[in-house]
């Protein structure tokens, strides 16, 4: 069965603003700050997410690559967060609580229009659960 892409992207570099500020004095004193800033830039730039109507793929790594996959029907809860600094620059985070053993909490940080992606995800998760016949049962 073919998968349809819902969204592809990577976090904004704004999530590293504090780290980059810390690198300035390290560059002046030790010269190490520039190397750390470059590393952090590529680490964020190469951290990619791909969301389809069936699963979420997370690709990360600079030299060695890792791909993690979460089936959409495993998503239990979605949360949209707008930390103060990210809100100032129009960005937000999406946090997914899942039943996936290797990645129970997935954070997608530094997103423009994160509230829209969260709604698209919510609809896709509900559709996928219906297709797979997955029902959630809570025991108290």
Automatic annotation (TrEMBL):
Bilayer-crossing regions: 17-39
Against InterPro entries, the record matches this protein to: YdbS-like_PH
Q: Which Pfam families match?
A: bPH_2
Report keywords, A-Z.
Answer: Membrane, Transmembrane, Transmembrane helix
As given in the record, the signal peptide range reads none
Residues in YdbS-like PH domain copies: 48-112
Q: Which PANTHER family match?
A: BLL0215 PROTEIN
The name of this protein is: PH domain-containing protein
Species this chain originates from:
Zobellia uliginosa
């Amino acid at each position: 069965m073919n998968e349809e892409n819902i969204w592809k992207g990577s976090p904004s570099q704004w999530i590293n603003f504090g780290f980059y500020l810390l690198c300035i004095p390290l560059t002046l004193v030790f010269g190490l700050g520039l190397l750390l800033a470059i590393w952090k830039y590529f680490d964020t730039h190469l951290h990619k997410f791909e969301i389809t109507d069936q699963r979420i793929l997370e690709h990360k790594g600079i030299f060695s690559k890792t791909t993690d996959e979460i089936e959409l029907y495993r998503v239990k809860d979605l949360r949209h967060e707008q930390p103060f600094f990210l809100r100032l620059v129009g960005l937000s985070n999406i946090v997914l609580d899942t039943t996936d053993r290797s990645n129970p909490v997935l954070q997608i940080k530094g997103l423009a229009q994160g509230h829209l992606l969260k709604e698209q995800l919510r609809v896709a998760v509900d559709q996928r659960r219906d297709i797979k016949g997955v029902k959630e049962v809570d025991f108290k």
